[in-house]
């Protein structure tokens, strides 16, 4: 049984953004790394490695659709313990909408072959759509199990998971193969080991292009049915903080409660 | 292609809050397009939900009532919506961006190779196109996004739109048959543990949150008490969750929930950028922190510098007096 983990490189959580007159977005992170592994995906990577350690998966393969720079994220996956990493990169995929990206990921998973579980993060913190897992599942014809907070059991070709939904925790069983997307509760991601980092730095990461894949349907900006066009900075929050002063705590809270009634938020 | 559809998510015979908001938003879109609004009511024993949908202002209800739809499973709901869209070509399909609404719109859009825009916080009708404003990069930027061709699938973030109100309207629903039979649905639901607390973070109009400053699991007791007096939900920072003081489902922030209440009271939370990512769109933010330099004071409208174990109980007492 092979396990694939789909991961994306995103701007860091502390990145500072600029949007130029053409709506082009760039970012930097003074004092930090500007790009990181999408934070939600750390849990997906950890879970894929645990499927290998605890559930007899033979491979835990990291997969990214992105630019050459995304190899950094894939190296982190290898350093954590993924057995292989594959970058899918082609200018033909630029400007894809979520369905377009899903087609490419599905084609790559099919090319890897013999995959029983494809693990995803819940969301990517750049585009913030949270649609990719369910859309890849549809393109593969597999069952999507989203918002997974625990894998309970895998046996006889069935997987049982717990899902963290808005209103409670649901336990479901489905036959493999499945797509799962995970939430933070599922595990605590490990840090890359020293040996792992050395191995990752020596690894060569294969790059697959459109020509290597049998993508079912069109990709790229031409085929996209969603225009992501106009990006801009929101207006800054108005005003500055009013620190409530007073002789006693009772006086302070009285004044605060007055303000909150005035604001009509109670 | 014509008509605006809205998926009406229901639980135990009730239309959930985010769907009431979606109906309100969809009603406005339908009126501006000059097209009828159809509510989609799927589930088991849902005739009362159809009546409630008419009351909230939809012009028609397209329903499917079957045991196989008792639990939301994408293999049952997805093909049902997909086949209806194929058969009747609506211009717009909307839903609340709940966990289930996101899956449903995403799956059906992939099935039909259609365009989908998730997490709308504002809508503008431009000709036949719905321009959707949505946050990106954890709300550091906004984008205006739209579907260029075919049915427009749009999901709406909670608390961004006012709920539809009762109109007193009634009507006759059209009921269709399910398209997938139980033996063809691979996923089986074997258990469900409902959340203990009533108010969900994403629906709450007031949230009281605790961070590392509460010092331990018992430190959430005064936070909960204040929340109870205000009818508020309890939130937490990641530091408090990672310490094991409170379950993950309470976490607000970049790797937790994104919330947008009228009032957010942050107690013993420093206000790291990743926490802000989940709560910066709150209408009024109050910070209670003993460190006057804490970054949360840069975001808050009102602040009290002090020990939360003194301030929060005093605040609870004051609200108790004023609200009784
Ligand atoms: C990839 C990534 C994702 C993350 N996602 C999230 C997320 O989703 N949500 C999130 O919250 N964080 C997230 N974080 C963590 C974030 O960076 C901070 O570490 C975290 O928010 C800090 O929590 P805190 O404010 O409770 O703790 P601290 O930063 O330790 O702040 C505690 C505050 O309590 C005050 N205090 C202490 N005692 C008292 C007292 N008795 N009375 C009053 N005030 C007191 C202190 O002055 C201090 O300001 C993420 C980080 C990373 C790297
Ligand atoms: N370009 C990509 N390459 C690989 N995986 C991706 C890509 N985009 C999204 N994903 C996966 O899909 C999840 C949800 O992303 P999104 O739908 O973009 O919010 C992420 O956490 C990743 O696991």
Order of helices and strands of chain B: EEEHEHEHEHEEEEEEEEHEHEHEHEH
Low-confidence stretches of chain A: none
The structural class of chain A is: alpha/beta
Question: In which range does the helix fraction of chain B lie?
Answer: 25-40%
CATH superfamily of chain A: HUPs
Helix content of chain A: 25-40%
Under CATH, the homologous superfamily of the largest domain in chain B reads HUPs
| Number of helical segments with 4 or more residues of chain A | 7
Q: Name the chain pair with the biggest interface and residue counts per chain.
A: A-B, 80 and 94 residues
Question: Widest sheet of chain B: strand order?
Answer: 7-11-6-1-4-5-12
What is the C-alpha radius of gyration of chain A, as a whole number of Å? 22 Å
> What is the average per-residue confidence, as pLDDT of chain B, rounded to a whole number?
97
Give the helix/strand class of chain B. alpha/beta
Q: Any guess at the CATH architecture of the largest domain in chain B? A: 3-Layer(aba) Sandwich
Oligomer: heterodimer
Order of helices and strands of chain A: EEEEEHEHEHEHEEEEHEHEEH
């Amino acid at each position: 049984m092979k396990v694939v983990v789909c991961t994306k490189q995103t701007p860091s959580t502390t990145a500072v953004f600029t949007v130029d007159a053409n709506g082009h977005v760039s970012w930097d992170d003074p004092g930090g790394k500007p790009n990181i592994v999408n934070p939600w995906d750390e849990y997906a990577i950890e879970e894929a490695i645990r499927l290998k350690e605890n559930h007899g998966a033979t491979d835990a393969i990291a997969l990214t659709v992105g630019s050459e720079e995304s190899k950094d994220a894939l190296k982190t996956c290898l350093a954590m313990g993924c057995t292989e990493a594959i970058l899918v990169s082609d200018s033909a995929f630029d400007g894809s909408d979520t369905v377009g990206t899903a087609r490419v990921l599905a084609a790559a998973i099919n090319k890897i072959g013999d995959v029983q579980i494809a693990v995803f993060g819940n969301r990517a913190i750049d585009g913030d759509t949270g649609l990719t897992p369910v859309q890849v599942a549809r393109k593969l014809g597999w069952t999507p199990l989203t918002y997974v907070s625990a894998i309970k059991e895998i046996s006889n070709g069935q997987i049982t998971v717990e899902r963290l939904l808005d209103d409670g925790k649901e336990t479901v069983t489905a036959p493999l193969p499945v797509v799962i997307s995970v939430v933070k509760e599922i595990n605590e991601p490990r840090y890359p080991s020293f040996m792992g980092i050395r191995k990752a730095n020596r690894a060569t990461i294969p790059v697959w292009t459109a020509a290597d894949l049998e993508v079912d349907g069109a990709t790229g900006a031409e085929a996209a049915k969603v225009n992501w066009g106009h990006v801009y900075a929101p207006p800054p929050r108005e005003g500055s903080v009013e620190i409530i002063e007073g002789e006693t705590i009772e006086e302070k809270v009285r004044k605060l409660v007055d303000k909150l009634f005035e604001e009509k938020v109670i | 292609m014509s008509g605006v559809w809205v998926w009406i998510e229901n639980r135990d015979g009730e239309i959930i809050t985010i769907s009431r908001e979606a109906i309100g938003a969809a009603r406005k879109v339908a009126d501006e397009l000059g097209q009828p609004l159809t509510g989609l009511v799927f589930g088991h024993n849902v005739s009362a939900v159809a009546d409630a949908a008419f009351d909230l202002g939809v012009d028609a209800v397209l329903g499917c009532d079957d045991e196989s739809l008792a639990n939301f499973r994408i293999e049952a709901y997805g093909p049902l919506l997909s086949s209806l869209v194929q058969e009747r070509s609506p211009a717009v399909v909307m839903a609340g961006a709940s966990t289930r609404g996101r899956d449903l719109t995403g799956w059906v859009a992939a099935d039909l190779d259609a365009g989908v825009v998730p997490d709308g916080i504002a809508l503008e009708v431009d000709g036949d196109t719905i321009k959707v404003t949505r946050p990106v990069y954890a709300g550091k930027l906004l984008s205006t996004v739209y579907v260029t061709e075919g049915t427009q699938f749009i999901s709406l973030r909670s608390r961004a739109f006012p709920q539809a109100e009762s109109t007193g309207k009634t009507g006759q629903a059209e009921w269709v048959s399910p398209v997938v039979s139980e033996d063809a649905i691979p996923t089986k639901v074997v258990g469900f543990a409902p959340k203990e607390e009533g108010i969900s973070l994403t629906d709450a109009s007031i949230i009281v949150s605790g961070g590392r400053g509460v010092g331990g699991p018992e430190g959430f007791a005064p936070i909960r008490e204040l929340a109870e007096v205000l009818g508020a939900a309890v939130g937490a920072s990641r530091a408090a969750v990672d310490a094991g003081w409170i379950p993950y489902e309470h976490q607000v922030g970049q790797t937790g929930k994104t919330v947008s209440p009228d009032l957010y009271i942050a107690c013993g939370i420093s206000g790291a950028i990743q926490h802000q990512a989940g709560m910066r769109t709150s209408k009024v933010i109050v910070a209670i922190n003993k460190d006057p330099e804490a970054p949360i004071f840069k975001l808050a409208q009102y602040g009290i510098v002090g020990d939360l174990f003194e301030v929060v109980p005093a605040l609870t007492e004051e609200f108790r007096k004023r609200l009784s």
